[in-house]
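README: folding subset

This subset contains proteins for which both the sequence and a predicted structure token string are available. Records are stored as plain text. Below is the entry for DEHA2E09240p (392 residues), shown exactly as it appears on disk.
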Amino acid sequence: MSELYTLEKKTTDAAFPRGPGSTILSTDRLKVVYNKYLNTKGTISKDKIKINLIFAHGTGMNKSLWNYHIKKLFEHSQSASTWVLNSVLSIDAIGHGDSSLLNEGKIGWVYKWEDGGKDIIQVVKHEQQSTNEFVNNATTKNILIGHSLGGYMAVIAGFYEPSLFDTIIPIEGVLYMDPKTDGRFLGIFSKLSSILIDKFNSEKEYNEYFTKFSIYKSFHPEVLKDFMEDEKATFIDPETKKTKFMTKASTPNQMTTYYSAGLSIPLVMAIFPQIKVPIVHVIGKNATWNPPESITFVRDAVPKEYLLDTIDIPNAEHLVNGDKPDVIVKIIEDTIKKRVATAIENRPNDPEVKYGGNKSKILTSQWDLKMSIIAEQQKAAKAGRKQKASKL
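--- output ---
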């Protein structure tokens, strides 16, 4: 464990209600498990912008996939002069990791991905209410990072609660589908279902599957190790009574997530024009999970003022966050630096900062500003009416 941060596994309620079929009974309530990493420095200089990060993984993965990235970002934060990494959350999606174990016997046959975005919101608000952290304002910035399924959930979370997040970084996010080529996904999913294994006779079998045969075998060794350790669970074989090994995310839970893509993706495609949170759109140049036209679609659909950056990673596949974690760390750090520079520029004009939290002065100044804007609008409207009348 690093001396730079503490690590605590926490649990909170998942979003409710959920999409029909998401739980076996409509009254079933689910839980979300997440890791919280907290800076051990204690008091943070008021001159620095506090950065909080939230991570969401892709289908079949878990919260510990991001351990390596988080450790590196805490290390890099030590030498930063304008910002400090304060706290990080890494979330197990419903049906994955420790969330899956807690929700056993409740998960249904549908997984509306937008519910995952709502779960992210639940976790962040739980931290706000229980610790008074993760309040996105002039001096603290929440940056949300998601890969694949997690990229989708991150965008949806930003759409539902734009004031909760400063920036969203979808990495190879699954954000587009063409109904004409819908069968392409179904073919991929069928192939995946034939190669997924979730039960093993021994720990050796478990390790060999992940390191030699799984789609994750090309991961950076440390990323793979952390992911495997967190994914490993045991069960008693009812026939032999022997202890065997399994993945926390069962094959049915994973396939439910995959097959629900078609139910979920049209929503995110529709809401892009309404996005009000800056987005850094990251893709792997060699990736084939998303169709090529998805890149142009997303980058054209997001309002230009909110498309903060577009990054095409050379020689990178869909699982780039596991294959090339240091590249992802740099992208996140570069984004932090950009957003911190903007925050520092804007901070003196923020009413809370400008008036030192004096509620009376804040309210008076903002009310006066609002009235002056309305007066200018009325003046412009009156001038427009006069101009129109002169042409008659």
